[in-house]
Structures
1.
Amino acid sequence: MNTNKKKIQKGWMMLIVCMLIQAVPFCVASNIQPLFMGSVIQEHGFSLTGFSLLFTIGTIVSAIAAPIIGSLFSKINLKVIYTAGAILTGGGFMLFSMCTQLWQFYAVAAVVQIGAAIISAIGVPLIINAWFDGNTRGKALGIAFAGGSIGNIFLQQLVIRSIVANGTSKSYFIFGLAALVVGLVVSLFLVKMPKDASEVVKGNNGEEKEFNEEIDISYSLKEAQKTKYFWMIGIGFLFVGLYVSAYSVQYANYFQSVLKLDPSVIALTGSIFAMCSLGGNILGGVLFDKLGVVKTLVLSAISVIASGIFIMLAGNNPIFAHLFSAVKGLAVFVYMMTPAYMVGEYFGKKEYGGILGMLNLVFAVGFSSGSVLFGALASALGYNVTWMIILGFVVAAFVCLITASFGMIKLNKERKIKIEAEMAA
């Protein structure tokens, strides 16, 4: 009994390490840059459009690099690649303090986001997938990603105060240094993989999981790409990226410019989303562990569709604007953790990072183009019709993901039977 507790403690300690990664290096790289925008634009004379392109460039570059990063995890020692990621993330963010030209900000943003992909987008799910079995992985992923929300609560206040007191350059240096120190401590002293299967945290859920972990039916990236369901999942997450971009980026302008909602109402919707998204990842993790992928995706589809209906009704009553943000926040796990969970559940651990990197790339393509597509559609067809089209994207996304899930369950059962027959021969 004591030995089992020690094994479980190692896994949960790694979960705390992942929360720390999300709370500091990830938040610095991904969440606080918007707080610098006003001061940087005023200081250097950049246009809002020009500086905003920084976010698109960072997203696209990290997405293109994601499959390569994922494949490196199976070839390079974990501490080595994590150390490189920490240096790119924290050290890169420190370089913002030296930037004076717009192209320099673009270049540094690309470096920082590649680092963030290494230690967070690919690294955290890979570590959780290695340390937790199918009955505990969902909850662990949810808690790990919630670390980002917790860190963001504190960093938002600290960054704003630092910019006022120290200016942008010094603040870039301070928070980049904090990310670098935390990242290096984690990389050199804390992060590690389980020595063997006996160290993996195992749950007591009696329900049969879609992916049987007693017999390794893991896929290589090439094997995964030969299945039609892999591509169906990819198309599903392309549509997820499209609708998430529309709902996340366009809602504030829609509420303010089109519906003419009071600024206090819009601010409240943002706060509601922040509070609900904090619990959204944990909720998603629990649902995945208790209900499995298919049932959780069905509930997710209902939630996101409801959110889409609420935003179309927001012009009738502001309460629907708040309901939109609340439901959207609770369903945040659909894009935060579902790709990582589905890869572990259906494709296993053999080339987990490479497969996840491909799906992250597809999601990023959808997300980076979604807002532009929304703007074009809204200009041509009006907002009401465009929101209905976005709702169609939601339906398409979940039809693809749920159909692919049923297909992978059947395919993995056949794969298991074939491997068992080969082992018995």
Note: The chain has a mean pLDDT of 88.
2.
Amino acid sequence: MQDPSPQDPPPMPGRPVPRIARRTFLTGLGGATLAACTSPQPAPPPPEEGFGPSPTPAPPVTVNAATGPVVVPGEPMRVVVLDTDVLDSALTLGMTPVGAALPSADTRFPDYWPASRTSRIRLVGPSGAPDLEAVRLLRPDLILSNQTRDGDWFPQLSELAPTVLTQTAGASWKSDFQLHAQALGRVAAAAAFVASYQKHAGQVVQALAAAKLSGHRVSLVRFVEGGGMRVFGRQSFPGTVLADAQVGRPDAQNVDQSDFEVPPDQLAKADGDLLLYATYGDPGRAGTNATLASPGWQALGAVKAHRAFPVDDQLWFQGIGYTGANFMLDELQRFLGA
């Protein structure tokens, strides 16, 4: 649940960066509606029109949030999301929020969603510090976030609309998605997306095994403005997606942690058979440029083998949901060459 970057670092010279297969995305977000799509662009989740209010309004629903039971509308129509995990959940389930908060360094919505899905969303301040007046003016009937970001704001947010918070965001994304689906009244749709993702992950596992690539160790590195260079362990969103693909991790990252900072004299902890790195914030101030030019980075086995690639920070570290994870599986398969 770290903030996304408005800019990725440059690719390694001499090697094109594999791009995501947009058509392949259809295999990851299946279901009858998505399977019928043939566009090469990312297929949107089931259209919102199919989820409109019924002639008889659905009764309120009680969901068990991190703060305790919360009564929410049976069919919420004006939803405000205050972090990137709930943004992915809402859009995946066919609900376009009326408002959203984005991480402080973010200047745009994630590119893995087409502009047609995000152009109507009003910004309501940075994640963790929402503009309460902007939220109020949108007249929400449901607010979604997590305690890590907005636990301190819960009393004020609850005065504006029923507010459902998960405990955190990141490695718990699958269970968090279930709570989001309950709050949004789209449990059946959620089950279809879960089953489709599981099938997609299984297909990637089979492809990697057939190519004898399952044992390759994949390193995850993130340069964070104000936070140094961080490597990611198993208890993180991207770490769980790699686990679903059953790929290996470097020893230093094969730990039950989310992430930890690596000092410049310990760059070996960033090495792997495949090294994927992203930047949050300005690459100069985040240390990306200096590190990539350093002798220690150039000495890494993945770098010398031309197996170090920049990835989209908004996808790999901010996607935190089933749509983001499906795109990541496709990219991982392409990076590994299966």
Note: Residues 213 and 336 are 7 Å apart (CA to CA).
